[in-house]
Each structure stands twice: as C-alpha cells, then as structure tokens.
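Appendix B, record 7
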Amino acid sequence: MPLALLALAVAAFGIGTTEFVMMGLLPDVADDLGVSVPAAGHLVSAYAIGVVIGAPLLAAVGVRVPRRRMLIALMGLFTIGNLASALAPGYGTLLAGRVLAGLPHGAFFGVGAVVAARLVREGRQARAVATMFLGLTVANIVGVPGGTALGQQLGWRATFLVVTVIGLVAMGALAALVPYLPLERRGGGAGGAGGGSGAGGVVRELRREVRALGDRQVLLGLLTAVFGFAGVFALYSYLASMVTEVTGMAASSVTVVLALFGVGMTLGALAAGPLTDRAPRPTLYGALGALALVLVAFRFTVHVPWAAMATVVVIGAVGFMTTTPLQMLVMEKARHAPTLAAASNHSAFNLANAGGAWAGGTAIAAGWGWTSPALVGAGLAVVGLVIAVVAGVLDREASSGRRSRVVARGAGSREAGDRDGAGVH
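Structure tokens (predicted):
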C-alpha cells in the first residue's frame, strides 16, 4: 500500500471525527452557550451545508491546481474551521466555524479519490479509494466516541482543538507522502493538461468539468447516493434515542452502540474495495438491497439488546458498502473530468444525511413510533436501488448501441472494400 494512502486516511479520520462528533456533544454545547438542544442541533446541519456548498465550488476552483497542493490547501481550510470552532465566543461564530470546516470536506474526498486511484495499478483503484475511506470509518470507532468522552470531561472546545492538531498532522503527512502528480492531460493541442494556459485554460477546464457533471449516468449516480444513503441516516440520526427508549439500554451504552456502527462501516469499506474492483454495479445493487432488508429487520431486533447491537453492525457495513462503488462509478462516467463529479458525490451524501434525518424525524413527529425511521430508511434504500438499476439498464443499452454502430461501420467498410476489389478485377 503506498504511504500516500495513509496520509489520505489520516486526513479522512480528522474529517470524519469533526463531522459526527457534534452529535455526541450537543447537550454540552447547548449548556455552555445557553441555547436549546434543538438549536444546537443546527450545528450538525451547518456542517452539512458547508459540504454541499463547498464540494462543487472548491473542486471547480481547484481544477487547475496540482493535486497535492490542492489537498494541503483544503486540509488547511478544514483546520482553520475547527480552530475557529474551538475558539468561538458564541453560538453564531460557532455556527460559522462549522460551515467553514465543512466547506473543504467534499472537495477533499473528491480530489483524494482521484489521487488514490492514480497511486495504484489498474484493477486496484477501488481498493485504494476504500483505503482512504477507512480513515472515515475508523473515526466512527475511535474519533467520535473518544472526542465525545473528551468533550464531556474537558469541555467541547478541547475536542475541536484536538481535531485542529489532527488537521495539522494530516497537512504534514500529505506534504511528505503524497507525490507530485501532474494534472491529467486532456485533448486540446499544445495547451497540455487543460488545452490552454491562463484564464482561458481555467474556463475551458471548468466547462469540461461541468459538462461531465451533466452526464446522465453521473446524475443518476448522484441521485442514487441521495436516496440510498438517506436510508442509513434516517436510522442513524435517531439511533441513540431508539436504543434508550425502545431497547431499554442505559444512556452510557450509546457510545458503545455508535462505536459498533463504526465497526460495521469499517468492515463494509474493507469488503467494498475488492468487490467493486470486480463488479461495481452488482456490489452497489447488493449493498442497497441488503440495506433495505436489514433496516426492516431492525424494526424487530431493536427490542432485544444483543440482536439490536448485531443489527447495527450489519447496517453500518452494508450502508457504507454503497460509498465505494458509487464513487468509482461516478468517476468512471466522468473520467475525462472526474474531480467535480467525485466531489459532488459527497454533496449528494450530505444531502442524504440531512434528508434522511428529516424523513426519520418527520415519521417520529407524526406519531409512528421510535422505530419508524427504520422503515422509512428501508423505503429510501429501495428508491436508491431502483434508481441504480435504471442507471445500469440504460448504461447497458448505451453500450450495446455503441457496439452495434461499431459493427455496422466495420461491415460497411468491408462491403466497400469488396466493391472496390470487384471493380479492379
């Protein structure tokens, strides 16, 4: 494994920690800043908003920036955002700090996925991308529970100061371990990578990236992420309340349950890499179908502590198994300009986070019970599966059409050659 993948994983660990740790710190933040817990909950949404806005924007701005430099700059912005959060004097400034920390999230994973795929030989790209995402999953096993415990003991600001240090370490690792990678060469003559230099080259590169983002298969991939992954967050957002209100477990056990979810995510990431390298679409179909089934099962297993915890691991595993094939399919379909599409995929995942939480909360507010988010999540996973299957069918039809045209052109050339030969005789 190239050491550069380790640097990417360290950065992903810091990003994953700061994204999810706020959920465990909400009571402490609310207490310290004198706001309600629901108001403090907007700090979770603020980060997601930063991701949704920043992913396409920063990826587009950085299309002509060398990959290593872009990764370091994005990690620098992330570090500044977390330092601003740690030093925020009030609720408003903390809200702004969370948005700032979220801005580079999607662009980092978008650029990082492109870099990871270029660091390894053909046929191992998905495993390389999955290795980077391991940092994100390990954050849910170690970073989030550890950050929550640290914040409870030393104050929530200490958690964000530690994440700031992780950001600095990640910047150093990226600078030391990620090799210089020239920008991908495009068509366009002497201009080289971007078909030109200066402002004109940047504009042309942006147009190419935007056109790639408008590809039908890319858009269907993003829609699959929005609906399919929303199924995970419809449940995950209310998992703590479910295990205390329905399973009857103590509040102190919530950290263990969240860590088990992280264990499942890690297992899913480890399995997704080699499976995606072999068959990306079947891996995606299988993960989404399994997610729908296990979410329905959780509606029943949640009443038994050991069964509930086992099901949580499986939900984390099959839920996160969707991320690598989606990332690779989007990058493949936008292969001539993959950065913006790969970054936008993370905007889609964060829309899924917000949409899934909203859908699950709406079901609870409607009086359907604490377990209703599991069924809502299953429905969303099925919608994601349907979109994925439609994308696969359309892709096969398009490929068949291209092959038919190639065969027809070849046959036409042979017929013309035969006629020419007959004329000679």
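Remarks on this record: Residues 186-197 have pLDDT under 50 and may be disordered. The longest helix spans residues 372-424.
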